[in-house]
Amino acid sequence: MDYNHFLSLINPIAKWLHIIAGVTWIGLLYFFNFINGHVAATMDGDTKKKVVPELMPRTLYWFRWGAAWTWVTGVVLLYIIFWNGSLGMGMTGEDGSMMADSDGTINIWSHIMVGVTFLAV
Fold this sequence. Notes:
By secondary structure, this protein is mainly α. The chain has one domain (about 5-120). The chain is about 75% helix and about 0% strand. α1 runs antiparallel to α2 (about 45-85). It is elongated, with a radius of gyration of 21 Å. The two termini are about 35 Å apart. Residues about 85-90 have low confidence and may be disordered. It comes from marine metagenome. Pfam families: Urate_ox_N (PF06181). InterPro entries: Urate_ox_N. This is Urate oxidase N-terminal domain-containing protein.
């Protein structure tokens, strides 16, 4: 099995993991901001002592790992699509890479593209 075939198999897996982790991360962010804050403000002291130690460690665990896996799968997708260039919609150089020119030097526009992408996100 060649390297590009391997990356074409990894690409949809990484995309779906990225989507699932991102939905988990953003969904829990909305939970913390819009639901938990309002509900916690209405609870009395005894209820908070029972609910918060049980609920918060579980939700923070999933929030932390949702954010981490979103970032990790995003870097994997960035490598597959941009740096490797095998799935870059035909915009590749002679060697199949989007980040390097045909003589092997790094293309300045590729760095600008990656920088703008990180700033936009």
